[in-house]
Design goal:
Helices cover 47% and strands 20% of the residues. By secondary structure, the chain is an alpha+beta fold. Strands 3-5-4 form a 3-stranded antiparallel beta sheet. Strands 1-2 form a two-stranded antiparallel ribbon. The longest helix has 15 residues. The radius of gyration is 20 Å and the shape is globular.
Length: 128
């Protein structure tokens, strides 16, 4: 085996076999993570890249106290489209910063939206 092939094997072993190596047309190998490892890596990358936005969202929801905020209200407060906050909200929920409650509030489109609260104000029965 040449040194390139050894590197590919070592990279695959480095993640305990989680993932697979994809060969490109030029013969370069890239490790593609799968499963939980990939999701955690995605969330970590999102938090690192979007840290100022995420911290602003956390502060806005914390200031809302027990009342909380919907994704629509959060989008309006941060001057973003409602679908533009979804990834950040999911990352914050996965990290345990925000929690979804059973409460619903009407949106401007006459639908109902789930209310998000900060971890300091999470309702009884929701485990961390």
């Amino acid at each position: 085996m040449n040194s390139k092939d050894e590197n590919k094997v070592n990279r695959a072993d480095a993640v305990d076999g989680v993932g697979k190596i994809i060969e490109t047309a030029k013969g370069k190998g890239y490790l593609i993570e799968t499963g939980q490892t990939a999701r955690k890596a995605s969330v970590d990358a999102l938090k690192k890249r979007r840290r100022p936005v995420l911290m602003k969202m956390v502060e806005l929801v914390r200031e809302a106290r027990e009342h909380g905020m919907t994704r629509d209200e959060l989008a309006e407060a941060t001057d973003r489209a409602p679908h533009g906050v979804q990834g950040s909200v999911l990352a914050l929920i996965a990290d345990g910063e925000l929690f979804e409650t059973k409460a619903m509030r009407p949106t401007r489109w006459r639908g109902n939206a789930i209310v998000l609260v900060h971890r300091d104000y999470r309702p009884e029965g929701i485990q961390v």
